[in-house]
Write a structure and sequence with these properties.
alpha/beta, 3 helices, 5 strands, 5-stranded mixed beta sheet, Nucleotidyltransferase, domain 5
């Protein structure tokens, strides 16, 4: 119980009213929090999808075997090719649908600029699926 007040009369009668402003402030803050978080809690619609069993019809793309030996000679599927020849073959391969994957095998001793040259030519013609083939056995 609160006794006292700001009156100058000096009588000590109890206060009969409650200060509602802090309670309203807390209620408004909680209301804003619930308004903001409520849409976040209901982000998904629960539905029962029909069940069907079918195998997906995937067409696997062909792959092209590119190899670069220690001397920097490039092989296209086992045949020696020079730069204009592999460029024309890459351009023809990029026109096929689905685009083939390039499996690139490079000797460990070949200069990186040769590998980068082949990769940049492939990217120039739109062949972006390039995989590096490595030997899983580590040499010691």
């Amino acid at each position: 119980m609160a006794f006292g007040g700001f009156s100058k009369s000096g009588d000590s009668s109890p206060m009969a009213e409650i200060n509602m402003v802090p309670l309203i402030d807390v209620m408004l803050v909680l209301l804003v929090i619930f308004i903001i978080t409520a849409p976040l809690l209901t982000h998904a619609v629960k539905i029962d999808l029909p069940k069907a069993s079918s195998a997906p019809n995937l067409t696997k793309p062909d792959n092209l075997q590119l190899a670069i030996d220690r001397d920097g000679v490039v092989y296209w599927n086992g045949q020696i090719v020079d730069r204009p020849n592999w460029r024309s073959r890459m351009q023809a391969a990029a026109a096929r649908q689905p685009q083939p994957e390039i499996h690139l095998r490079a000797d460990g001793e070949v200069a990186y600029r040769r590998v980068a040259q082949v990769m940049s030519d492939a990217a120039k013609y739109g062949l972006t699926r390039i995989g590096f083939v490595t030997d899983p056995k580590e040499r010691r």
